[in-house]
User: What shape does this take?
Amino acid sequence: MAFFGVNDASSVGTLFSSLNNSSKSGAVNSTNVFADHASIRSGSYFKLLKTYYGSEGNFAVSKIADKKTTTSVAKDSTKTLSRIESSAEALKDSADALMAKGTKSVFNQTEIKKQDGVVKADYDREAIYGKVNDFVKKYNSLVDNVETSNTKSIGRNVDQMISLTDSRERTLNKIGITINKDDTLSIDKDSFMKSDMEDVKNLFNGSGSYGYSVSAKASMIDYQAQNEASKANTYGARGSYNYNYSYGSNYNSFI
Assistant: This one.
């Protein structure tokens, strides 16, 4: 688990080793700091406080501790945010695959043998359909996962993504993609295979395209889910340490 950019316990020790270890007044002992970190992480401080105040007849701390209180200020659970982040990353990757240029572009024309036996340069429709179908699945997954979110910034960006899709409804219909009542998408393969692949390319490939805009929105939702996860619990009700900062492939770069 990465703890503010530090990968393991030995790295934490290295971090604190730079502190002044002299015996002068006011100096910080790195060994003590590291020991304190270990005590907090294991929940020893919590147990000590509960025992001390409980024995003195001060039940306030015990009563608070016994409740399932947490330090979380996040609007969603870590589990929910993890699902949203994962689906947002998947949608971005799917959209980016359709936007690829050069030799990696799915829109490169190849020699295709037609039913009449004539060989002609054309788009690989099966390959393009596979990429677009994957995009539809990933889009729907993100829309479904965000339904359980209470984070306003996430909901706002998903609403904007849905509005963006609604504005392209006619173009999407031309290539066999329809918008459902629940804001998810459906793709009809027969209609898609008969459509003009230039229309598909213009829709998903290139800066300023629909695919580009969805990729940007998915990236923003991914970031917001990571940001909200940073507000989630560091310590549980019993003083045990939660590894909430492990979620997000990009989060550590912001530390």
